[in-house]
Amino acid sequence: MGNFDCVEKWLSHGFQLYGRFLARHPFIVLFLSLSVAAALSSGLFFVQFYSDTEDLFTPDVSRAREEKLTIQSLFPVNFDNFYATRIIEMYQRIVWIIVTAKDGGSVLREDAMNEIFHVREKVISTTITDASDTVVTFSDLCGMFNGSCAVNPVLHWVSLVRQYTGAGSDIEFKVPYPSVELTVGEITQTAVLDSFLGDVEVEGGYTKSAKALSLMFFLRHEPSEMNELSGQWEDAVAEMLEGYEPKELNVVYYTSDAVDEAQQKMTIDILPYFSATFVILIMFAVASCMMKDWVLSKPWLASCGVVSAGLAILSCSGLLSYCGVPFNQVAASMPFVIVGIGLDDTFIMLGAWRRTNPHSSVETRMGEMFKEAAVSITITSCTDFIAFCAGAISPLPAVRTFCLYTGVAVIWDFFYQITFFACIMVFTGHREASNRHCYFCCKVLPRDNSQSVFYKIFCAGGSSRVELQQNPSCPVVHTYHLDHTHSVDYTSSSHHTLPVDHALMADHSFQVDHACMAFFKHQFAPVLTHPLSMGLVIMTYIVYAVIAVYGCCTLQEGLDLKNLAEEGSMTNLFFDTNAKYFVQYGPQISVMLTEYLDYWDGDTQAKLEQLVQHFEDSSYNRGHNFTEFWLSDFKDFVVEKNLSVTNKMTFLKVLQGSFLEDPRFLRYQEDINFDGWGDISSSRFLVATGQLVSVQDQSNMMLDMRHRADFNPEGLSVQVFTPNFIVFEQFVVILPNTLQNLAIALFAMLIVSLTLIPNPLVALLVTLCVASIESGVVGFMSLWGVSLDGISMINIILCIGFSVDFSAHICYSFVTQNSQIPSKQRTAESLYSLGFPILQSAVSTMLGVSALFASRSYIFITFGKILVLVMVFGMLHGLVFLPVLLTLLGQFHTNRKQVQIPPVVEREEEKVFRESFFKELISMRETNV
């Protein structure tokens, strides 16, 4: 392979020197690593939590935000002349209540309406006190209409009916539908009831029944003092409703801070799950590192692997808190990722340690362990970091923050693995060398020197040479280093040529293998590489690929707001109920005319009529009857009053002096802006959208409206906006942004693999393997009911890191072996080296996230689902698909040159020296014990 191994060889040699240095100075390195952890962790005192849902889950640079700034400057909400259809904030200050009948019947019957009026009275009568102890009521905070708080049109109509007909228990109220004419004071308005009645059955233009009724209490959010009081009043109402349960009704409610508060609550509620995860992982790590030998078992070292990941989490969070980076609910998933990555590195290092010569010095073993394992974990750490860097450029702040936290944590995890954990490994190596018990560190006898069965079962362990004396034919392996890249070992019966990475690890004569490592080499690998098994594996992969592609084609997009709150919580129930009863029609769209126009001119009026028709021609438009345009009503008003409007002066005079003062058209005062000279500087009209069944309909409607605004037939300067666009825009950017991040991460991962894996074909294979795992995760994610949204996008990005871990380790182990060894044997050795660490990593991660399935949070459950898919498919690729492919492509060549040495005949003096050496060693061990 020529020059392909220059970086890998340099890095491998450097880590070998570092491992030997660390073995000589473990206390210094341990002190430095713990000092860094303590200094950085102190930053947690400055952590800031950010939970603004609109900012977190919508693109921070977007057209919707620009349009929002335009409408805020031109048509701000006037709370003294308040119309709900003119709201421009996604999270307008509001207490929103939806009531349904407990028996599932209509809410328009007398007994239900009595309780609905009672609910309204309890809400309106709720009071708070301000800083000066002044009592503040709803009427002090509400949006005003004609001098009083805006009314609910359904309740207003029912009140009028009661005044004229009286009330009886068997009355079923009939309300005009879909709109009703209401007179409040001297003002008569037409109210559309779509937002107030749900699941309506209509008969003869009147409601026959309605299964749900909506009560909206709109509050002021400007100035800031009023916004704060409105928030306090919302909290007071929520507290009142929490303990209130009407006899006939189900009541669900929502406040403007509900989603943000739900996120904060979930971040706190996740702490017990995180604690449970640490306990579960420590128990698993300890159990998986136990052997029948009480000296070679490593329970404390396994526990320190989890602690090492914990130090990385604390250091990352503290450092970013020092830097002023806010924490959020999505970033709370980061610890579960880092624990999984950290344990993967831990098991790789433990596996490499087990393959070192147990009779070499701790310094030598640490050097050889680092030489093999450090390059492998460097590859995966680099690719993990790059994957999260790709996510950190996302336009969604929630994704960006999560990737920033996780990417930094990956670096710190790598740091603590090669410092803190490696130091503990040095101490463990010295404990093994002195034949001490893995738990109590007291010296123990080897198993074959045990005096009792109890001692042999619970205490004994370590190396013994008694078997050598009883079996002189047992082969003894000698290793001769020829240069920096090759070595030769031989026994009395044969000779082999091995790379230096594995030569020192070839002495298994006096080493106790972990049972799982032996299983992968002697049972699993031969079965897997059998021709029939490989054929079955290929067929299985084809089925996997077909299902994955099908799932990708059926993937749904979009984040449902109810998923931002815990399942079963009031906020979650509210969004569920709202989606069930009030989704039949889409929002009203404000179409803003942002330039000066000659509205009095007949040609201009014709152009504007064509513009209105242009928007009404959309397949998403509800119909002409639901369009609100002041100019159309003004022209009708002029005809009705028999007025003469022939020029600019009379047009403006009638418009301002008569039309806008008419009680029927007061709402249009919020739709027209006049400059200092009385000219119309800007105006707007509203069009209503029809039923939007899916997320795709919502995003397509937004794109269609924007296209009509940008390419209107008259070339007018037009912008469109509704608060829903803030959410809909996420649906548009999520898929291309996900594909962009995946492409960047895969390309960067290919570069890293080409740099650190000394075989370009294998580096490409790693990349293709990761792409295959990603496809499977996305496809099966869809079949598991998970949509593509900001949450799942984060998990797909982190999948790259885990996918690399599974494939890179096996490929690196395979390619660094002697290319002249049969491919089946190389596969067996790779599975022997890394099969058990990969299994440990996958199982430990799945156990770690299993606690998340007890959570009621969509975010954490989605995280758990996707991580389980990654582990299952990653393990399937790393332990089944990839080994079979490597076996079939067994013609790979490494850059390690073959060095053949003729059989060496052991000289007589060497034989005498060997026998005397072992006798002296056995004597020393017996004396020490």
UniProtKB/TrEMBL annotation:
Pfam families xref list: Patched
Membrane topology per record: Multi-pass membrane protein
Transmembrane regions: 27-50, 270-288, 300-322, 334-353, 373-393, 405-427, 527-550, 739-757, 764-786, 792-815, 836-854, 866-889
Localization terms from the record: Cell membrane
GO CC annotations on file: plasma membrane
Domain SSD: 269-427
InterPro entries: Patched_domain-protein (IPR051697), PTHD_SSD (IPR003392), SSD (IPR000731)
Family according to the record: Belongs to the patched family.
Protein name, UniProt field: Patched domain-containing protein 3
